[in-house]
């Protein structure tokens, strides 16, 4: 009877096996033809993000849902491949898509543990799932996965399959593929990683969120140790390498890849331009855009602008903490975790880090920094915020436990309490010959405010607009030696809205009859107004269009002489380029070329170049003379600080608007134009430190001291048609005249005094017609001129 039962059971099992095998065969016959085509694998085109580079090939931005870098299998380091095999599929090069030994081992493990712990997926099966299937845990999905693995193995080589896996798998931090993950986690290329770093990445595919070293460093470390142990057991690494890798302290990238070089404003300009051209494909087709930026110039510009704005801000008072955290409501055992969560939501701003006050007294402030670091700020590190430690400070200003502040380290590594400046700024530098932008910083911090002040901020240019009025005057017969009355004047109320206008010089002093060259050096407002009255506002407005100014932004009124219109820093840089390059109109541009993912050239900018194909905006003689006059602004005038550069080819003009709302400096040499602006987004007075020469010029000097270091002085000869009079200029320098307007001592005298019409359109008077020349100016005004010029 027992024998019959055994035979019956065996027969039943055999029949069931045959039936099951038949069903499997039928399922395969039915399912296999319906499997998706492998075209997506054989013609692999991953979603590649838009990448933006400087001209010297430094990555400054990356845009796309997926952060990905395609890497050929032959370029993947051997240890990276071995780490993957150790972690995911040690028999990858032996099995045919399904590792039966691995399946049996996983089955036994699942039975012993009483739960589904391992699915024994091979790398090929993971490729199948990632490209074609969902992540649901069903028998049907697993069956299709196995069949696809067989199909893939019969279509592609092992190296091709591994290449797909290495480039496609998701590894957290928006990174797809191991090359992108190397940058996301460590900020360096895949081929420069250590064995320990590769092991950490190899542990991510199993569960990217669980083993993410940024989010769960302890779990990530345990997974890393497992991968290293498997590499050692499989003899991929030696005992010495194993021990060294276990002991290696991993350092994750502190900053994300797209902010390593602070050029986010330019990266955003490129993103907008690319989206306008390619729409959504801009984010998936792997376009590479090379800008005109120079990485060193960009870093110098960024550092200079931030240093200048921070310096201005430190001259103001400490405003107090940014916010407060109630420490008493946090259990002591949860304090570090809670503070880390609070600080993780606050971005660093350059070297300005957020911190939370743990304890404070007049001599010491104890701070908590991100990552559990505690530091003490004492001595000079408290000087800026000293008032906030006194009893006189209001509760909102006081440094007390729970206050969230900003700190930075000085050159010696000492911590100091500081603050994010409220004031904003802009800086742009360009090659005047072609318009190629070398550096552009649109504000203090892109993450705080993405508004690009270089291209979007329309502000009053103030006295930086005067050179264009002077250039128009040269075109109408004035010369640098023309004498103009720097004396008070009242503009007829009937021409300016019913109220009289009594413009004044910034210093409240007047020099009497003064040459145009000297007046520009000292930025004399009354001289600019008299020039405008003589040439006429309409002509001045039309002439300013040659420099690129839109007439609607510079109304044809006398106030235009003082820069009362509107212009952006970019427009000012383009306008000053006309003077710097010999009179040609060049346009600023920031995209040099666009390539596809394979490096094929798609587009290239063909700029208008001075002296080649750029239109002639003004007479080159005019440009030379105005440029020479602007050199005296640096040598003897309001921009005298720039002489610290020790160069003879520097020219420029300061600008300060009414009530100190805007501070400017625009300067150049023949090879580089740079413009900086400082002001508040909601215009208000910058206060007594708000002059162009004190708020904006130091930023320009800081940048130029780096940008022109080692560059020889460039002294351009006068163009044909310019007459040189030796010793006739300031301090015995040569004076220059257009040959058709040269005459003898002095050339012209302009004397519009008293109450005059506001729309004055008076032609320049000759010296012979100046019968009503005013008396000699007061002695204190004369002495003031001597002090500033000599």
TrEMBL record:
Places the protein is found: Cell inner membrane
Domain Penicillin-binding protein transpeptidase: 425-671
Enzyme Commission identifier(s): 2.4.99.28, 3.4.16.4
InterPro entries the record matches: Beta-lactam/transpept-like, Glyco_trans_51, Glycosyltr_51/Transpeptidase, Lysozyme-like_dom_sf, PBP_transglycosylase, PCB_OB, PCN-bd_Tpept
Domain Penicillin-binding protein OB-like: 318-423
Topology of this chain in the membrane: Single-pass type II membrane protein
The protein's annotated pathway: Cell wall biogenesis; peptidoglycan biosynthesis
Pfam family, one: Transgly
Signal peptide annotation: none
Record region (Disordered): 747-790
Domain Glycosyl transferase family residues, every copy: 58-231
Domain of life: Bacteria
Catalytic activity of the protein: Preferential cleavage: (Ac)2-L-Lys-D-Ala-|-D-Ala. Also transpeptidation of peptidyl-alanyl moieties that are N-acyl substituents of D-alanine; [GlcNAc-(1->4)-Mur2Ac(oyl-L-Ala-gamma-D-Glu-L-Lys-D-Ala-D-Ala)](n)-di-trans,octa-cis-undecaprenyl diphosphate + beta-D-GlcNAc-(1->4)-Mur2Ac(oyl-L-Ala-gamma-D-Glu-L-Lys-D-Ala-D-Ala)-di-trans,octa-cis-undecaprenyl diphosphate = [GlcNAc-(1->4)-Mur2Ac(oyl-L-Ala-gamma-D-Glu-L-Lys-D-Ala-D-Ala)](n+1)-di-trans,octa-cis-undecaprenyl diphosphate + di-trans,octa-cis-undecaprenyl diphosphate + H(+)
Keywords from the UniProt entry: Antibiotic resistance, Carboxypeptidase, Cell inner membrane, Cell membrane, Cell shape, Cell wall biogenesis/degradation, Glycosyltransferase, Hydrolase, Membrane, Multifunctional enzyme, Peptidoglycan synthesis, Protease, Signal-anchor, Transferase, Transmembrane, Transmembrane helix
Listed SUPFAM superfamilies: beta-lactamase/transpeptidase-like, Lysozyme-like
Xref: NCBIfam families: PBP_1a_fam
Protein family (similarity comment): In the N-terminal section; belongs to the glycosyltransferase 51 family.
Name under which the protein is recorded: Penicillin-binding protein 1A
Classification lineage: Bacteria, Pseudomonadati, Pseudomonadota, Betaproteobacteria, Neisseriales
């Amino acid at each position: 009877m027992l024998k019959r039962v055994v035979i019956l059971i065996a027969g039943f099992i055999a029949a069931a096996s045959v039936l099951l095998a038949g069903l499997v065969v039928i399922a395969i016959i039915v399912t296999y033809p319906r499997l998706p085509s492998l075209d997506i694998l054989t013609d692999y085109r991953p979603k590649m993000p838009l990448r933006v580079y400087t001209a010297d090939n430094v990555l400054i931005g990356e845009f796309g849902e997926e952060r990905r870098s395609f890497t050929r299998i032959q370029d993947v380091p051997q240890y990276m491949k071995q780490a993957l095999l150790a972690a995911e599929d040690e028999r990858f090069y032996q099995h045919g898509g399904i590792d039966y030994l691995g399946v049996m081992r996983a089955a036994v493990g699942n039975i012993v543990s009483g739960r589904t712990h391992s699915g024994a997926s091979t790398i090929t099966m993971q490729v199948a799932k990632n490209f074609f299937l969902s992540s649901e845990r069903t028998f049907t999905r697993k069956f299709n996965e196995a069949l696809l693995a067989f199909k893939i193995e019969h279509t592609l080589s092992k190296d091709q399959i591994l290449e797909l896996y290495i480039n496609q798998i998701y590894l957290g931090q928006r990174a797809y593929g191991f090359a992108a993950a190397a940058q996301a986690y460590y900020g360096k290329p895949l081929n420069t990683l250590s064995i320990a770093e590769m092991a950490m990445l190899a542990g991510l595919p199993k569960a990217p969120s669980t083993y993410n070293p940024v989010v769960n460093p302890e779990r990530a470390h345990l997974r890393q140790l497992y991968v290293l142990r498997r590499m050692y057991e499989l003899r991929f690494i030696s005992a010495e390498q194993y021990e060294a890798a276990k002991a290696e302290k991993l350092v994750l990238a502190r900053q994300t890849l797209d902010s390593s070089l602070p050029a986010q404003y330019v990266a955003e300009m490129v993103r907008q331009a690319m989206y306008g051209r390619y729409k959504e494909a801009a984010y998936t087709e792997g376009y590479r855009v090379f800008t005109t930026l120079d990485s060193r110039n960009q870093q110098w510009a960024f550092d200079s602008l931030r240093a200048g704005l921070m310096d201005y801000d430190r001259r103001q008072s400490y405003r107090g903490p940014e916010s407060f955290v109630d420490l008493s409501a946090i259990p002591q055992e949860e304090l570090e975790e809670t503070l880390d969560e609070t600080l993780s939501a606050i971005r660093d701003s350059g070297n300005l880090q957020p911190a939370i006050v743990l304890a404070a007294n007049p001599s010491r402030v104890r701070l908590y920094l991100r990552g559990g670091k505690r530091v003490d700020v004492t001595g000079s590190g408290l000087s800026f915020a000293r008032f906030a430690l006194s009893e006189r400070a209001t509760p909102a200003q006081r440094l007390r436990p729970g206050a969230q502040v900003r700190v930075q380290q000085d050159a010696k590594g000492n911590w100091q309490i500081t603050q994010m400046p409220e004031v904003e700024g802009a800086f742009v530098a360009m090659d005047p010959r072609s318009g190629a932008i070398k550096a552009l910083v649109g504000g203090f911090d892109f993450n705080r405010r993405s508004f690009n002040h270089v291209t979007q901020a329309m502000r009053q240019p103030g006295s930086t607009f005067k050179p264009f009025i002077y250039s128009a005057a040269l075109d109408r017969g004035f010369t640098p030696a023309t004498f103009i009355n720097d004396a008070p004047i009242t503009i007829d109320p009937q021409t300016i809205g019913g109220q009289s206008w009594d413009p004044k010089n910034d210093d409240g002093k007047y020099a009497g009859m003064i040459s145009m060259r000297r007046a520009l050096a000292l930025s004399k407002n009354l001289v600019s107004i008299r020039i405008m009255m003589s040439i006429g506002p309409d002509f001045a407005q039309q002439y300013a269009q040659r420099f690129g100014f839109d007439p609607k932004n510079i109304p044809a009124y006398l106030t235009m002489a003082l820069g009362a219109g509107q212009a952006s820093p970019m427009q000012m840089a383009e306008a000053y380029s006309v003077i710097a390059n010999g009179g040609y109109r060049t346009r600023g541009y920031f995209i040099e070329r666009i390539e596809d993912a394979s490096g094929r050239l798609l587009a290239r900018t063909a700029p208008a170049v001075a002296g080649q194909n750029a239109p002639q905006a003004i007479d080159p003689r005019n440009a030379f003379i105005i440029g020479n006059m602007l050199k005296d602004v640096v040598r003897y005038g309001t921009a005298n600080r720039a002489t610290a550069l020790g160069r003879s080819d520097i020219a420029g003009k300061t600008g300060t608007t009414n009530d100190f709302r805007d501070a400017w400096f625009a300067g150049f040499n023949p090879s580089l134009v740079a413009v900086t602006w400082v002001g508040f987004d909601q215009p208000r007075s910058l206060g007594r430190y708000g002059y162009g020469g004190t708020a904006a010029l130091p930023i320009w000097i800081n940048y130029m001291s780096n940008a022109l270091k080692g560059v020889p002085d460039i002294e351009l000869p006068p163009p044909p048609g310019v007459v040189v009079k030796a010793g006739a200029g300031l301090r015995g320098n040569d004076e220059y005249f257009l040959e058709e307007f040269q005459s003898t001592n002095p050339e012209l005298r302009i004397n519009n005094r008293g109450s005059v019409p506001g729309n004055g359109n008076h032609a320049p008077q000759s010296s012979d017609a100046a019968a009503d020349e005013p008396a000699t100016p007061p002695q204190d005004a004369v002495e003031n001129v001597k002090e500033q010029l000599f």
